[in-house]
Structures are given as structure tokens and as C-alpha cells.
Amino acid sequence: MKIIVLSGGAAAGVVKGIQQDFENRHHCEIDGTFSAVGAMRDLVIQGSPCDLVILSKTLIEELVHSGHVMGNSVRSLGIVPTGIAIPSSRKSPSPKIDSEEDLKNAFRSAPALYFPDMQKSTAGIHFMKVMQALGLDQELANRFKTFPNGATAMAEMAKDADPMVMGGTQTTEINISPGVQLIGLLPKSLELNTDYTLGICKGSQHPEIAQKLADTLVGSDSIQIRQHIGYILKS
After folding, report:
1. DSSP character string of 105-155
2. In this structure, is residue 234 part of a structural domain?
3. Residue 133 phi/psi, 5° resolution?
């Protein structure tokens, strides 16, 4: 039995963290696709097979209203902040990012800036807004290196030969990516904290096992995993 999960990249670490134990316990296979939330929403709307979908709360609510997700199945995994990362190979001190001016100077000093999709990913869309707020969207446009999701952006940044590059995405993607390190969150005035939420698709071929997977992802079995990779759990 195959359980199909379409998810934003911020939940990849949670799904993969419980995957082997869940598969062994329930004699199934989790087939997960993790990318920009907008792209995953589009797949659901286009009718791609899906048992469980994990996106931002806003997009899950859209899918409930459009009839693609069962409203009584919607639950939150927790809040994911957006942060700044640098390559782990960097030997010089991390740039200051405490204020808008600090962040502006840090971005200007970086030879390249790595982000997820600036049109369909939660973090990428927000980083474009941050660049616009700082007046850097045109000035630094030729330094932007964007990829389908945050994990890919971080993986590519880790490969860059220049350790002075920077990037940003959701903390849960930074924390599971080898070769990069989280140096901090966006300044308070520019912060983004996203409620990652799951729902069972109305077209699910295996709604009962999808429900068990949902219970595991939001329940006590995954608490340590979620906290470890950067989720802020709701009280």
C-alpha cells in the first residue's frame, strides 16, 4: 500500500523522520513529494493522486473551500520561522542580521544569495518582499539564485565555492540540509512565521491509513523531531 504525500519543504524533515517506523508498523510505503507550497497546491487542484497534503494554513484552507481537502481532517504541525543561512565552510564571523540595516549590509556583502522559488514557495515569496522592503530587489537581482524549494536552494548553496554566499528559507529546511548553518531569524520587523498544516484529500485512496499518518505527524511520536528541526509547537 502506497500513501501519497504532497508537502511543502518545511515538513520534509518531519515526514522523513517518522517514515521508516511508520512504514514498518503499518506495512505501507510513504511516497512523499516536497517542494514549494504553491506548486504542491496546484498538483492537488489538478487532480494528482494524493492522500495527505501539508502546506501553509492559508493554502490548506483554500483546498478545504475548493472541496479538495476534508475540513474535519485539518490540523497544525506547528509554526515554522524563516531564517538566514551561510555555508558551514565559512571561517569568518557570521554577518550581523539583528536589524534591517544589518541585514541590508549582509545581503550587499554576499556575492550570491540563495532562495527558494520567489513566486510559489512560502519563504521565497517572503524573501522577495524583504528585498523590496530593503530596497534591494533591483540592486541585487543579478545575485539571486532561486530553486524549486528551500532544501534544494540550501544544497546548492553548500556546493558554492565561495563561503561568503548567503541564503534564506524556513528554518526546518536549513536545519536538515548538510553543509549549511542557521545563523538567525529575520529581524522582528521582517519576520515570517508560518503555520504548517495538514489535511486528508477527499480523493484519498487510503483514508484510514492517511488518518493514522496524520495522527503520527501531529502527535507525540513526532514532537522531538519537530522541535529538533525548528518547529515551534502550539500550546
Report:
1. HHHHH-S-EEEE-TTTSHHHHHHHHHHHHHT-TTTTGGGEEEESSHHHHHH
2. no
3. -65, -35
User: Do 225 and 144 share a structural domain?
Assistant: no
Digit-coded pLDDT (tens) for 121-159: 999 999 999 999 999 999 999 999 999 999 999 999 999
Arithmetic mean of pLDDT over the chain = 97
Q: Helical H runs in 37-121?
A: 37-45, 57-65, 100-109
Single pTM value for the model = 0.92
Task: State the Cα–Cα distance between residues 68 and 234, nearest whole angstrom.
Answer: 26
CA distance 81 to 97: 15
Query: Three cell numbers at 64?
Result: 478545504
CATH of the domain at 14: 3.40.190.10
* Sign of torsion over alpha carbons 216, 218, 223, 227: positive
